[in-house]
Amino acid sequence: MPRLSPVDQAFFLLETHDRPMSIGLLVVLKPPPGTRGSFADRLVRTMLKCPPGPPFSYRVKPGPLPGLLSLVEDEHMDPAKQLFRHKLPRGADLQSLFASICKIHPKRLRRDAPLWEAHFFTGFPGGRVALYFKTHHGLIDGIGFINALNTMVFESPRDNPPRAMWEGLRHYTPPAGKASPQHGTSLLQTVNDTRRTANDMLRLMWHQGLRDLGLGRGLAAPFVSTPNVLKAAPGPHRVLAHCQLPLARVRDLARRGDAKINDVMLTLIDMAMHRYLGERGITLDRPLVTDIPVALADHGGTGNRITILQAPMGRPGVSPAQRLADIVQETGQVKKEIRELDGSALTLYSIVQHSIASTIESLGLSELPMLANAVVSNPAGFQKRLYFNGAEVELALPISVVAHHQVLNITITTYVDELHVTFIALQEAIPDLQRLADLTAEAAGELEADLARIERRVARSRARRAPARSARRTAVR
Asked: What's domain 6-167's superfamily in CATH?
């Protein structure tokens, strides 16, 4: 029987009109060569051959306790009733599509209906079709979405068995060792697991205390160190933006900065946010803080098996290269805690933090500090060009949630040789969101220039030391 984990339940329990917990995937498809008639009609007919699969074949019903929900399989679900067609105006571009999606994405999904919708958009040049699939975050997370999509796309247009987004994980087999956590555990095992979770929660908070006292390393304490910027009252309006960067360029920056690709992307986003705030006359006296969702090692596919931890980014006023070094240090600490602490403890820690953020918002305590200034996630992506029902996938972007007491969510994905960065925000907080996206792309040049300056300085220093070393060797001989 399908079950909802504590994180899944939290996504349902914390959902409000102004904070819908919907996530989605936007895919732009190019018709196969020689396609006759309406590609959209053909695509819809093909997809309707496919029955819903887990978790999109599940419905929610009241659970054993008030406020909690449980899942039940709906064997008679009709996908045609969840499918919607839209005609964009002639000459529509990506921004037009974003504007249309922002009218659909924030609407709460009905609890008495299937928790997903499929929207088809036509009107693009060359007969292209955009498919936007929307579902509830309580059913699946970003890693689960990627796993599902992996079973629906192929590397050749000739591999085109009928596939539909609502099939979910019907064709997915978890790798060995990645099965979902077992629920039918013994009492002794439950006691041991509870003890370990409690001990690891205490260890995590002990590490935080040592860090605050300057006596050790740990995660940054939530709320207390987050700058009070980019705030707005909760509302249902959203805005989307997008930028992309060559993967090879970012990989080179990571190599030169002794960092990971994720560290470089966090640095570019951090630089862009500082510049964006500076253009509005806002200066910071401490680092911005980001929420970092992390999939846990025992992720089994459906539902959410994640934790969300906070990490300060670069210090105000430092150079781009030093900002990268600051972020490498902080993400290293996050990775260390994830390696050493039990996944259930990290999950519980995340639920408690975000429940506090939700309570602060629901009580209207806007003067209290935010949990984080942004959420930045990277659920991976695809290294090769892909085809869906024989059509080329030109673009695939995730559309995420804007969490309680926050205004900005950023998702980084890979497709072929590009890194795509998708921004979603509360419209009242960042109406000109595309400016932040553009600044993120521009920041790569600034980081490149700063790393080049350091490399030249190191080369000059080595060149000056070389004659002295040579003279010492001659004197010895």
From this structure: Chloramphenicol acetyltransferase-like domain (3.30.559.10)
